[in-house]
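Suppose you are handed a protein chain with no further information: no name, no annotation, nothing but its sequence. What can you learn? This example shows the usual starting point.
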Amino acid sequence: MKTFNQPKPVFAEHGKRAVILFHAYSGSPNDVRMLCRSLEQKDYTVYTPMFTGHGTPNPDDILDQGMTVWQQDAADAVAYVKEKGYEEVAVLGLSMGGILAMDRLTQDPTLMGGGLFCSPLFETKNDVPVNFEKYAEMVIPYADLDEATQKKILAGVPRKVREQLQGIETVGQTTAGHLGKIKRPIFLAQAGKDQMIDPQTVFKTAEALSHVPYTLQWYPESGHVVTVGPERKKLEQDVFAFLETLAWKE
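A reasonable first move is to predict its three-dimensional structure. Written in structure tokens, the prediction is:
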């Protein structure tokens, strides 16, 4: 069996301003680790939680969960940071993590602001199922499972991922319908070479946020995981600049 280095959440305590970074659908806190480190250096307290079922080599651990569980994970992450004494919290996320961050922002008026990176709130064409199938084939050799079990799991992935994606899309579209509830500034990042979703979808989100201050940044040379792409340094600078505009008390 190959060795699997399990990713872990990070809670890096620094200044009184706290930021939560949510990872992507088939991802882990590693998705946002470099952005986390960048914000730490700017004296932000940063939390990168891991959604239930993620961070293992068995794709069924993700596929056996759903958006209801992950919505609760996101709410729990905010509660955790506040229990630690950080009253002012911003939330941002990559892809599915961005949907969950925006979902929180529509429901929790105590949040300072936040946003998304390459997250499809509105209905759009996407290649998520095919990419998840590739991900499953890549990680399952690291699982402590016999070959027959691995093949059985992989055979079930196409159906399961498409069913799960429907739930993710439903939450995204519900959140899109509730964007009018947001009263805080929002940051939108979109990669121009996004191979997972239609990059133009971000403009629908921006239009629906015309009632609040928002920042839309375009990264023409980056792919879907913009947080680790060739323009990640620019993204890190842009996220920091956005956070500095929020109405922090401290």
